[in-house]
Write a structure and sequence with these properties.
Largest sheet: 9 strands, mixed
Shape: globular
Number of helices: 40
Strand order of the largest sheet: 14-13-15-12-16-17-11-19-18
Number of strands: 25
Helix content: 40-55%
Length: 1047
């Protein structure tokens, strides 16, 4: 640990932060409001524990809400306490649950489960709903089915997240219906229409009864659903946490083992945890007196109820771990951070006035003791600021964006950096609309745009090709109109003139019967371009049942030259990225379904489209210095100098019909009135989060009227704005919030009337590609393989590694992966159980493992590989593995080194450690006889670089020689106290019934050359030097030249 850095950080803490850091033992709750230094506190507390106790980094468990939170926490720990920070165990709740399951299965037999994804869940629920009779609460009509499916899926998730018992819920709801029938809740309190005070409100009761009856039906369906998924050994994302809880509950050995390791537990963003996540914390602390567990959160920033977050977990933690203590000790163990290092006093005071209207707070959690939650501005340059908040009102909803644009324009003229400005929106659509105004001004902006690729016309057109191939193969009837749609696909590049001529031919032949039309297509001769298209289709039909789905996917892409067409388009990044998403979706499907066929995958896609399940794609726009556009939810944890909150207080909650939990099962009142109040409080918390992102200046926008005569929303009234007119009358009254009705001029409208959507789309695509490349380069790590590609052709590197043009997993690649995994599994088995070091055990692993790759290769290839294994593995075992046994080794070693600004990574198959030092082993699945040129040590000659005839191995030395030098550098960097013995290449496929082994012993001179080569390559990549390689017949350079000629 860097003691000087740590001491400096510790000394900078305020009194309350030090109290939290110094309280090492026992339970602790830290209430960390916005901008109170929670981030620094967590990492400093870990450092303090390591410094003051005998606990080691692996004794500390940190749990947080998101994977990005895990990465950020790791980064902060390493920055503060050095390399030790990497050994602190940081997980999301679900990744930790996975670790618990793996830990259990290491010593116990655990039945294997398959994951059930959203589409299969939805299909199963639909099948179960089909069994429900019509004219019942869940099935009032055909149109109600989809909303009922959504309700059931929501209930399934809620039950798992909160660990409810379905039978107990059903009984409680039935009891609730009986008890509520005579409740005052359903009696008119005053005369309403034809009803007088005291009459029974039948309409309100019918609505309530229908809601609860739907819940009862949905819970009964859940029980059937649960029985089915259990019998089929299926598991979803929520089940992983429940499985870990089940194992911890039933296996005392497992729980004690985990408790023995994790002596200290820290939980971040505690207000966002669910009931099941809280139970995980309880299991880790079970039977431990005063466990060393600290939770950090803020109930005022709980904004994820729609994702299962349970605000009342804070109350539960207090009740379980603190309530038994005397009031004073409870108070000491509930540290409320009260110094805000972000915002001005006015922003903090107005935000506090707003949030204090909520009742779901912890201020009165300790009996007889009030917890004060008042943030004090502590930022040195802002704590004296008296800058008011501006409430900008417009008369029409359509005009609400323009004043923000004009205000931003004023800020920019005053020298404010784009990156210091943020505009926050209730939803994504508003954000995307607003971006068009900024694009018109040529202002850079940053936003993430979430899309569903199954709503993209080009992707749907591509999918349509597969439908046609399948129909063609099955001789399914096809109409001329359907075939006409295929001819119109843009990558076909068939002229309208040729398509018209084709239709004339069809019309003249008077083809009306679809079967006749199919026969006509099979024999068609005429327009050359259409003949070519039909020839491609016929070839695809022949391949459909012969090659695996992913290879067929790329065969179709290549046959129709869709990638080449995409590269010529302005929106090429968008097209290629979406094709890659679809390709990855297919890979995932292929990995899940043993021996899956393309026809099965097409049916899968049809199900996604029919059930309207998304295949998501996130498109990010960003420049180095850009205005930040995001939703209120996404802004949490961030801060900006100038913040505009669009539509402040006039947004709808992310609400959907959900599980009704009777009041007697929980500690809160869930009447309709109370539920309305809870929704209102959630909206208030969301607005509070948005407002407290601002450091220097906060702007809120609203409309004067909603068209129904409502002149102000509830939250606007709660922050007590003073109009500019009132301020002029009484200039000396302090005005924390100044409201003004913004009058747009004719000139303002005229400037933005000319929004040219098509030109903005082009700008968007350019920004997307530039941003995508910049993101790739920002923390870019080189490897031996990526450097090779750049040295071979910079344009190829750009396309394959920067843009990520989709590529298929070939047979050779699949087999290379298979053999590496096989030897890794065998080495691990022998390390744990030395008696398993036998040829039969190696063959048994191979025979089982090869079935995981069956969906990636053809049936003929599969049979050939099975036969080859029986022939090759005995030679590999007897000629190499048996005579090269070692007890001390590391597999799949992920190593990293830094050469100047370049981070360089490598995954080494095996490191063998002995008294003499380290031997690097790299397995090669190719033939030794084909690799001799790659071994050449003395062939590097940079003077040949510009000669078209030179190969990469002639210029920079043999590929495998370069790899050996790089691996030796990685080992020297990461194991400085160990001597490198050699780099050993083992060719695992026999030649002449022998296993070839080739060794290197790279010199320091070799490493010096390689260091310079790495640096020069890295600098070229960072400078975006992605031009031609000057080699003859390079397809990548030919494509580039073609695109440039079009430009």
């Amino acid at each position: 640990m860097n003691q000087e850095k740590f001491n400096k950080t510790y000394a900078s803490l305020n009194e309350k932060q030090k109290q939290a850091v110094d309280t090492i033992y026992g339970p602790l709750m830290v209430i960390a409001g916005p901008g109170t230094g929670k981030t620094q506190l967590l990492s400093t507390r870990v450092g303090h524990i390591l410094r003051e106790t005998d606990f080691r980094p692996f004794n500390i468990l940190c749990l947080t809400y998101t994977t990005s939170g895990v990465a950020a926490m790791k980064q902060r720990l390493v920055a503060l306490i050095g390399p030790e920070g990497n050994d602190v165990e940081v997980y999301t709740f679900h990744s930790f649950a996975e670790k618990v399951i793996q830990r259990y299965s290491r010593y116990n037999d655990l039945e294997t489960f398959q994951f059930i994804d959203d589409i299969d869940k939805k299909i199963l629920v639909r099948e179960l709903l089909e069994e429900v009779e019509f004219n019942t609460p869940l099935k009032k009509g055909v149109s109600s089915v989809d909303s009922s499916i959504s309700l059931i899926l929501s209930i399934i998730s809620q039950i798992k997240k909160e660990k409810y018992d379905a039978d107990i819920l059903i009984k409680a709801i039935v009891d609730q219906l009986r008890a509520k029938k005579d409740s005052e809740e359903f009696i008119y309190k005053k005369k309403t229409g034809d009803f007088v005070k005291g009459d029974f409100n039948q309409g309100k009761w019918d609505k309530f009864e229908n809601k609860l009856s739907k819940n009862i039906q949905a819970l009964q369906i859940y029980k059937k659903y649960n029985e089915i998924v259990t019998s089929r050994k299926l598991m979803d994302f929520d089940d992983m946490l429940l499985k870990a809880l089940e194992l911890l509950d039933r296996s005392e050995d497992l729980r004690l083992d985990i408790q023995e390791q994790y002596q200290v537990i820290l939980v971040d963003e505690f207000q966002d945890t669910s009931g099941a996540q809280l139970d995980l914390i309880h299991q880790l602390c079970r039977d431990v007196d005063d466990p060393n567990v600290m939770v950090v959160g803020d109930e005022d920033q709980s904004i994820y109820r729609f994702q299962g977050a349970n605000l009342f977990n804070i109350h539960d933690f207090h009740k379980r771990y603190l309530a038994h203590l005397p009031a004073e000790e409870q108070y000491d163990r509930m540290v409320v951070l009260d110094k805000n290092y972000r915002s001005t006093p006015i922003i903090l005071d107005v935000s506090r006035v707003l949030i204090e209207k909520n009742t779901e707070r912890i201020t009165n959690i300790i009996e007889g003791k009030t917890i004060i939650k008042k943030l004090e501005a502590a930022h040195p340059s802002l704590k004296e600021s008296s800058e008011p908040i501006e409430l900008i009102e417009v008369e029409n909803k359509e005009d609400e964006m323009l004043p923000i644009v004009l205000k931003i324009e004023d800020l920019v003229k005053k020298g404010v950096d784009f990156k210091d400005i943020a505009v926050l929106f209730p939803n994504n659509n508003q954000m995307i609309d607003f971006a068009q105004y900024l694009a018109l001004l040529d202002y850079p902006y940053e936003l993430s745009k979430d899309e569903n690729i199954l709503e993209d016309k080009l992707i749907l057109s591509y999918i349509q090709i597969f439908y046609f191939i399948q129909d063609f193969a099955n001789r399914k009837v096809l109409s001329p109109e359907q075939f006409g749609e295929l001819l119109m696909h843009p990558w076909m590049e068939i002229s309208l003139y040729d398509i018209s001529r084709f239709w004339v031919e069809v019309k003249e032949l008077e083809i009306r019967n679809p079967l006749d039309f199919l026969q006509f297509l099979e024999k068609y001769q005429g327009i050359e371009k259409i003949e070519q298209v039909l020839a491609i289709y016929k070839t695809c039909v022949q391949k459909l049942s012969l090659i695996p789905p992913q290879r067929f996917f790329h065969f179709v892409l290549d046959s129709f030259q869709i990638k080449e067409w995409a590269l010529k388009q302005t929106q090429r990044m968008d097209i290629l990225q979406k094709i890659e998403v679809l390709d990855n979706f297919l890979k995932d499907y292929q990995n899940k379904v043993e021996n899956g066929k393309m026809n099965d995958f097409i049916k899968r896609l049809e199900a996604y489209l029919r059930e309207e399940v998304e295949i998501p794609f996130s498109k990010r726009f960003q420049s180095e210095n850009s205005i930040n556009l995001m939703t209120y939810h996404k802004s949490k944890g961030l801060e900006f100098d100038y913040v505009f909150v669009y539509n402040a207080g006039r947004y709808r909650n992310r609400s959907q019909e959900s599980l009704y939990v009777p009041e007697d099962l929980i500690d809160i009142n869930l009447s309709d009135e109370n539920e309305k109040s809870r929704n209102e409080e959630e909206k208030r918390r969301l607005l509070y989060v948005a407002m407290t992102r601002a450091k220097k200046k906060l702007y809120l926008t609203d409309i004067v009227t909603d068209g129904k005569g409502d002149s102000k929303n509830k939250f606007k009234g709660e922050i007590n704005p003073i109009s500019e007119a009132e301020l002029k009358k009484t200039p000396n009254i302090g005005a924390p919030v100044i409201s003004s009705i913004y009058k747009l001029t004719e000139n303002d409208y005229t400037r933005f009337e000319s929004l040219n959507i098509s030109s903005l789309a082009i700008k968007d695509e350019e920004l997307f590609e530039n941003n995508f490349i910049n993101q790739r380069l920002e923390n870019y790590k080189m490897s031996h393989s990526t450097m090779n590609i750049y040295l071979e052709c910079p344009q190829k590197f750009y396309m394959e590694k920067m843009i990520s043009i989709p590529s298929e997993t070939s047979f050779q690649m699949s087999m290379g992966i298979f053999y590496h995994v096989l030897l890794e599994n065998f080495d691990e088995l022998v390390k744990d159980q030395p008696e398993k070091d036998s040829l039969e055990d190696l063959l048994n692993i191979a025979r089982k493992l090869i079935y995981n790759y069956r969906g990636h290769i053809t049936e003929i290839e599969f049979r050939d590989v099975q036969q080859a294994l029986e022939t090759n593995l005995p030679i590999l075992y007897h000629k190499y593995l048996q005579s090269n046994k070692t007890a001390n080794f590391e597999l799949e070693a992920d190593l990293e080194m830094k050469i100047g600004p370049c981070k360089f990574t490598g995954k080494l198959d095996k490191l063998i450690f002995d008294d003499h030092g380290i031997t690097i082993v790299d397995y090669k699945a190719g033939k030794f006889s084909n690799s001799k040129k790659k071994h050449k040590l003395d062939s590097y000659n940079p003077e040949k670089e510009l000669k078209e005839v030179a190969t990469i191995d002639e210029i920079y030395g043999g590929n495998y020689w370069r790899q050996a030098v790089i691996y030796s550098m990685l080992v020297r960097e990461n194991y400085p106290d160990k001597k490198l013995q050699e780099v050993r290449y083992v060719y695992i496929l026999p030649e002449d019934k022998e296993i070839k082994v080739f060794t290197f012993q790279p010199s320091l001179e070799d490493e010096k050359y390689m260091k310079n080569l790495i640096l020069s390559t890295f600098e070229k990549i960072q400078s975006k030097e992605f031009g031609c390689c000057l080699k003859i017949e390079c397809p990548w350079c030919e494509q580039l030249a073609h695109r440039q000629s079009l430009t």
